[in-house]
Amino acid sequence: MRDPLLSVDDLHTQFDTEEGTVKAVDGVSFDVREGETVCLVGESGSGKTVACESITRLVPQPPGRITGGEVRFDGEDLTELSGKALREYRGGRIGHVFQNPQEALDPVYTVGDQLNEAIRLHRDVPKSAARERAVELLDRVGIGDVSERIDDYPHQFSGGMKQRVVIAMALACDPDLLIADEPTTALDVTIQAQVLRLLDDLQNEHGMAMLFVTHDLGVVAEIADRVVVMYAGKVMETGSVYEIFEDPSHPYTRALLECLPGRGRALDTIGGSLPEPTDPPDGCRFHPRCPHAVPECETGSQPAFRDVGGSHDVSCLLHDDRHDLPRAMEADDD
Questions:
Q1: DSSP secondary structure string, 236-281?
Q2: What integer pLDDT is reported at residue 326 of this predicted model?
Q3: How many Å apart are CA 183 and CA 181, to the nearest integer?
Q4: What strands lie across the sheet with 37-41, from one edge to the other?
Q5: 10 Å Cβ neighbour count for 129?
Q6: Strands laid side by side in the 20-32 sheet
Q7: Where does the chain cross the membrane (predicted)?
C-alpha cells in the first residue's frame, strides 16, 4: 500500500488566553490517502477545525501555536516549511473550503477578481487566461449566467451560491487534497444535498482526496470512506465508515450515533458538556460523561489505542480482558 497523501502525527496546537492555555488539538493523529474521503466528526469544540487549520498553519499566531507533531503531505513536513515554501501547498496542492463563505469572500472585490487572484497566485498565466479559468470554474460549480455573474460582488449571491464560489476558489489549481470545514452547515437541506453531490462529482473527476469536517453523522454516512471521531482535542476512535456505524466501540461514538433519528430508539442527547478547555480532566477526556466509566478511566492520560478489528482502533481502556464494555453497550440496546 502506498504511503498516505497526508499524515498527521501527534499534532499539538494550543492557544494562550487570559483564562489559561487551551490545548485545542492535543496529540491528534490520522491519515488521508489519495482519492479517499476522511471525515472528522465530533461536537462543536472538539478541535476539528483547529486540526484542519493546523495542517497548512492557518491558525492565527498569536494567540495560537503548533507546539508539537508532524504534518506530512506527500512526504514533506509542512510544519518545518518557511512561509514562502508553504504557500506553494496552501491553495495550490491543498484547497480549503471554509465554514462561513461570507467571511471567506472579500466584500469589496468581485468574485471574478477573487478567483483570478487565486489562480494567478499559483499559476503564471495572463489575466485573460485566468478569467477563462474562473468562468470555467464558476460554470462547473453550477453558477448560472457566468459571463454576467463573474463581475458581481459577494453580497449579490445567496448563501448557497457563495458556498459554490468558495468551492470554485478552492479548486482553482486542481488540488490533490480538499479540506472542507463544515461547508454545508449554514445551508438548507436542499442546497446541502446539492453541494454534497457537487463535491462528490468534483472528487470523482479530479481524483482528489478530501478531509471533511462535520458534526452531522448523516453527512458522514453519505460521503465518508473513513471516520475520525474527536472529543476535547483528542481522537477517540477511528475506522471505516462501516465499522464506525455498525460497531461503534467508544462510548462517545455510541452516544453520537444514538442522537441520530432512525437508530431504532427515541432521540437522545449526550448528558453533560465538554470539559473546560483550559482544564481538561485526567484520564479519558470523556469519562465525566461516560455511563461506563470505571475508576481507572479517571487517572493518567488518554488511553492508548486498541485494535478492535480490521482498520478499527479505539482509545478506551475498557476494551481489554478485564472489563465487559462491549456486552454493557449491547445491553444498552435491549
A1: EEEEEHHHHHHS--SHHHHHHHHTSTTSSS-----SS-PPPTTSPP
A2: 56
A3: 5
A4: 94-97, 177-181, 209-214, 37-41, 226-231, 234-240, 313-314, 306-307
A5: 14
A6: 20-32, 6-17, 64-73, 76-77
A7: none
Q: How many CB atoms lie within 10 A of CB 267?
A: 10
Kind plus residue range of the DSSP H or E element containing 306:
strand 306-307
Contact at 8 Å (CB) between 198 and 22?
Answer: no
Per-residue CA distances from 67 to 92, 114, 193, 228, 304 (Å): 25, 33, 38, 22, 21
Q: What is the pTM of this model?
A: 0.89
C-alpha cell of residue 161: 451560491
Domains of the chain, by residue range, sit at 6-224, 249-332
Q: Length of the chain in residues, anyone?
A: 334
Which CATH code for domain 6-224? 3.40.50.300
Pairing of strands 37-41, 226-231: parallel
Q: Across the chain, what does the average pLDDT equal?
A: 87
φ and ψ of 199, to 5 deg? -60, -40
DSSP 3-state assignment of 136?
helix
Nearest 5°: the CA angle 13, 105, 224 is: 55
AA letter at 153:
Y
Give start and end residues of each alpha helix (H) in the chain.
Answer: 48-55, 83-87, 101-104, 111-122, 127-140, 146-149, 159-170, 189-206, 217-223, 241-246, 251-258, 325-332
Distance, CA of 4 to CA of 251 (rounded, Å): 28
Q: Are 232 and 286 in contact (CB under 8 A)?
A: yes
Grade residue 310 by pLDDT with cuts at 50, 70 and 90. confident
Least confident of 17-26, 150-159, 194-203, 232-241: 194-203
Look at residues 281, 300, 293, 299 and name the one whose alpha carbon lies nearest to residue 318.
293
